[in-house]
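Example record for the data management plan.
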Amino acid sequence: MATLASPRHLLGLQNTPREQIVALLRATRQMERAMGAGRGTNTNAYATALMGKVVANLFFEDSTRTRLSFSVAAKRLGAEVIDLQGQTSSVSKGETLIDTATNIEAMGVSALVVRARQSGAAALIASRVHVPVLNAGDGRHEHPTQALLDAYTIAQSHQREDFDLAGLTIAIVGDVNASRVARSNIACLTTLGARVICVGSSQLAPKGLETLGAVVTHDLDPLLPQLDAIMMLRIQFERYESKDAGKEAGKELGKPTVIASVREYRSQYALTAGRAEKLKASAIIMHPGPINRGIELDAEVADGPQSVILKQVSNGVLVRMAALKTMIEA
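Corresponding structural encoding:
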């Protein structure tokens, strides 16, 4: 499967050379400096970089942060944006993802940003079109721009100007098994030198994840004092077969297949205020969103001084600016 090493596509980070990841992170830093000079407006040095280009967001799965972040990124580079969401597209009438993508390419767009429930969907589309494809999340497979923004945030928080994360220990806690964010982060962060520990129950964090380069443990509390960053993940009930999967956060979930109860899950894996107190003063608290407050992360921790969750969102725009410019100009 194609990865970042593909000259015009950003499909995943597994097996991607370190120098290519670092190149995108450096490009992100250039965007940060330009946006700082422009105070968040299109007065930055890259405001016309993609003038005349059209970026198509093909989102066949729900999204808030990622879709809007790509839109803002493209517009700050001077590109036009068109948005297609699955429920309003001809996919709902039975059209294939390939037919949808090739038809939109035929309209003269410059890049396709793709999110889909099917693992490998972005790579499949990339194999059939001639414009750059950026994977905005495909099933349980990968979410490369999320991992890049997470790596950038960690490096920024720990003053790693060269993006060398050696010596840092990062925990990814919760539903790692269903998380494309976790898979991309394991690949990205370990390539940059960090030690990554996946934490959860045997179902949520199976030992098989160690084949990706992470350490797996089922016990969170002993790890807390040694962590430099802790990334909390929500339980992705929608990716499991239980009919109880969609109930609101904070309620007992009947008999979901993935956890026995919210109460039990919180007792073992939630980042509560008490657990947060055991972290180093320099440790940062992360979450890719959306947060299920009161399940994996308590509100006072999410909004506390060690939280960089909103900084992740800000950095997401910068990373996606760098990715769009890099891929379209390749």
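Summary line stored alongside the record: Confidence is low (pLDDT under 50) at residues 242-256.
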